[in-house]
Structure formats: C-alpha cells, structure tokens
Amino acid sequence: MSPECKRATQRYQSKRQTLDAELLTEMRSIAEKRPCWGSPQVYEALRRQGREVNHKRVERLWREHGMQVPKKRHKRLRLSLGGSDNSCVRKRPEYPNHIWSYDFVTDFTERGRQLRMLCVLDEFTRESLAIEVQRSFTARQVQDVLGYLFAVRGAPEHIRSDNGPEFVAKSLRRWLDRACVKTLFVAKASPWENGYVESFNSRFRQELLDRELFLGLEDARWCVDRWRLDYNHHRPHSSLGHIPPAEFAARWAASAPGPAQPTASQAPPLQLPNELPSNHPDSLIANGT
C-alpha cells in the first residue's frame, strides 16, 4: 500500500456474489432436469461433476432463492413391525439376485386408454430390471417377462409380490417352483410389506408418469425405457450412498463375488411372448435390459 493511500479508504471487494451466481446457475440447471430433487441430491450431483463445494453453501443458496421442493405429507408411522414373515422388514435382501420384487403400475394415454406396466426390481441393488408396458397382462405374459430376465441375469432365490391374480396364478407358481424360485406373498391389503418396489413405483410415478402425457402405447414404451435406463445408470440413489444402482451393482460384483452369481441350472427354458416376437422393436429381447 502506497503512503498516499490511507487504510481507512480501502474496502474489501467480495467475490462471493460472482461465485454464488455461477454455482446457482449450475444448481438451477440440475433442478430443471430433476425437479423432484432437493438440495442434498443436487449437492451430490455437483460433486459427481467434479465441482468442489461445501454442502452448507448449496443449502444456503437453495434456501435463499426459494428452490425448496414442497414436502410430502407422511402418514403416521406404525408402532410395531407386525405383518407377515414375507414382509420386506422381516425378510431383507442380502446380495444381488437374492430377492426380486414385482408389481403393476397403471396409467392412461391421452385418449384415456389404460396402460399397465410390470415393474421388476432387484431389492438389493435397487436396479430396475424391467418395466414392460402393455394394455393388460395375463399370468402367461408375466411368465414370459420373467423367463427373459432369468435367462439374461439368472434366477433369484426369492421373488416378492402382492396377491394380484397374475401373481398367484397356479401356472406361474408351478413355473417358478420348477425354476427353484421361492415366492414371497405379502399380507393382503398391506402394500408397505412390499416396500422396495412400492418406493420405486412412487419415484416412477413422481418423476415420469405425473409429468408425461403419452400419445399411445408406443410412445409410452419409448419414454419408460429411456427413464429406466436413466434411473439405473445416472440417477443417484440415497440408500446406495448417492450412486446409481448399476454402479453399485458393478462395485459389489468386483468386491464381493460369490452368491451374487447364480448357477446356470437356475434359469428355466426361455419362452418368448406370443404378442411380441423377438424381432419386434418393443420387445424386451430386442431392447435388452
């Protein structure tokens, strides 16, 4: 400092506003793509992009600029575990291909026609193994979807579901028994006992179904397939340490091989769906998982 300049005339010029503006722009860009995310998810996304930032700074900007996502009203918690022995609380997954779960989600097209979606989930890795979209499903069609998944991934030890007519059908149960897959039916009218797939269905509906208007069956299949790939490979999962399910599964396979790899004898003979041949562009065999 020169002798002519007095200290009292000097003022510190903060760079905070410039840096905050740059960070806020990145945060808004992420929030536009993921409108259901809160500040913790945005912070993890920034870190995965290589941005070194403190979580308190992200939370401050998130709060100051009113970017909070409206809180969902939670129902009252149950005081005891209760329920059946097949619930997700009593029977927990311990490794990949230990327990799968599946369930149906219903939506409608622009013209009001029904769409049914069969969601299959690996409860340990949280991977979405398949979301098959049809107008309706029979037990045989459910069997065809599972047959393809068993062929490419191996059969799980258990598969959890509710008591829907497609799942409790004798033909499907006999087929699963021949494949050495044990069924876990949750108690009736107790969706919380199938919590893994119900939680997935909630994210599926919140992030895609409530935001898209499907023009028809083909449009729904295209949108659902793109969302499923994004969910598996790009969307961080909080219960997996904020990494995508596919990355978690790859790390597990590299660090703890063993029971995660099923034997070839567990996979039943593959039977293709009657309505969707292997060369059909919307079939599972054509698109892969």
TrEMBL record:
Residues 276-289 have a biased composition (Polar residues). GO terms for biological process: DNA integration. GO terms for molecular function: nucleic acid binding. Residues 253-289 are annotated as: Disordered. InterPro entries: HTH-like_dom, Integrase_cat-core, RNaseH-like_sf, RNaseH_sf, Transpos_IS3. PANTHER family: BLR2054 PROTEIN (PTHR47515:SF1), LOW CALCIUM RESPONSE LOCUS PROTEIN T (PTHR47515). Residues 92-252 form the Integrase catalytic domain. This is IS2 transposase TnpB. It comes from the Bacteria. It comes from Botrimarina hoheduenensis. Transmembrane segments: none annotated.
